[in-house]
Amino acid sequence: MLTCKDFLKDLSEYLDESLDTEVRTKVEQHISECPNCWVIADTTRRTIKIYKGMDPYPIPADVESRLMAALERKMAARQK
């Protein structure tokens, strides 16, 4: 039986249609039985559809530098 945690782990590959048949069947069964995971899958699928094909929007330089600094702090904290 697939858990919600397993579903979330496999979600990206499920939406990319790159899961093997057995796992895909388990994910689809879980989605049909779990309303919360169905909403996550449906919302993610719709979001991808909306953004697919859009032109990239550049990140402002100040936002990019703050984001990179935050990521560097996070990675440094993990290495400790």
Protein model, in words:
This protein has helices at 4-15, 21-33, 35-51, 61-79. With 80 residues, the protein is mainly alpha-helical. Helix 1 packs across helix 2 (21-33), helix 1 packs parallel to helix 3 (35-51) and helix 2 (21-33) crosses helix 3 (35-51). The protein is extended, with a radius of gyration of 17 Å.
Q: What is the compact description of this entry?
A:
The chain has helices at 4-15, 21-33, 35-51, 61-79.
Q: Return Rg in Å.
A: 17 Å
Q: Count every helix, treating DSSP H or I runs of 4 or more residues as helices.
A: 4
C-alpha termini separation: 36 Å
> Percent range for helical residues?
over 70%
Beta strand count: 0
- Largest sheet properties: none
Inertia-based shape: extended
Beta percentage is: under 5%
Mean pLDDT: 93
Low-confidence stretches: none
Helix/sheet category: mainly alpha
What is the ordering of alpha helices and beta strands?
HHHH
Q: Could you give the topology of this structure?
A:
Blueprint: H1 4-15, H2 21-33, H3 35-51, H4 61-79
Helix pairs in contact: 1-2, 1-3, 2-3
Features:
single chain; 80 residues; mainly alpha; 4 helices
